[in-house]
Design a protein that fits this description.
mainly alpha; two-stranded antiparallel sheet; 9 helices; 4 strands; rod-shaped
């Protein structure tokens, strides 16, 4: 697995563990229907479709719950990193505003901007400079210095950067969807017919063993 956030990895493994039995259920459904050799092809396909749709609904519920949990985690981390800073005189100034202004700042100016922001007490600007520095250099000393002062926010930023985006989460979850059988794979094989015949023979033998030899009835008399 890629270098994802450890909590994301743990949550995805939990999702996969919950989704895995649905594969067994889908495979079992196909086997049961193929074993019912007396069904027509249409009856077998209709029953499979109804059963698979039920399995798929269970899968979508699991997948949606997992994706919702990831997005909730993303919102919490985003708020920790990018949340606005209240200033009594200037009002609310968000980190995003500073990020826009820093887009064209050269790398060599970032340490100076960080020091100026710290002296002025502009915490949101400090965050923006740290985020910019990390985006440009994973080993940035500017970010490392900021992280020492704000370890909770630094941890949230690094975790946020290690979360897959929502599209990638969806792709990864869909890989766990139980495969849908083809119509051809539902057609009974010779082994299925032989097994059905053996079962009917064993059932008949058990019935005769229990009731004895079959008797012929004529009117109300048995012989």
């Amino acid at each position: 697995m890629d270098e994802f956030d450890p909590k994301y990895v743990q949550d995805e493994e939990s999702f996969r563990a919950k989704a895995a039995p649905l594969w067994d259920t889908a495979q079992s459904l196909k086997g049961r229907l193929r074993a019912q050799v007396d069904l027509s092809a249409e009856e077998r396909e209709d029953r499979y479709r109804a059963g698979y749709e039920s399995i798929n609904r269970d899968f979508e519920e699991l997948a949606n719950d997992f994706a919702a949990g990831v997005e909730q985690e993303r919102r919490a981390l985003t708020q920790t990193v990018y949340g606005p800073v209240e200033d009594d005189e200037l009002g609310t100034l968000g980190v995003a505003d500073h990020l826009t202004s820093l887009a064209g700042a050269p790398d060599e100016r970032l340490p100076e901007l960080m020091r100026a922001a710290r002296r002025a007490g502009e915490e949101s600007l400090e965050r923006a400079v740290a985020i910019t520095a990390l985006e440009r250099d994973p080993f940035s000393p500017v970010f490392r210095e900021w992280a020492e002062h704000y370890p909770q926010r630094a941890d949230a930023l690094q975790r946020l950067n290690c979360l897959p985006d929502s599209d990638r989460v969806r792709v990864r979850t869909l890989a766990m969807r139980p495969p849908k059988a083809s119509a051809e794979s539902l057609v009974p094989t010779q082994a299925d017919y032989d097994e059905a015949a053996d079962y009917k023979g064993a059932l008949e033998a058990s019935r005769r063993s229990f009731f004895g030899a079959p008797r012929h009835f004529v009117g109300r008399r048995s012989y």
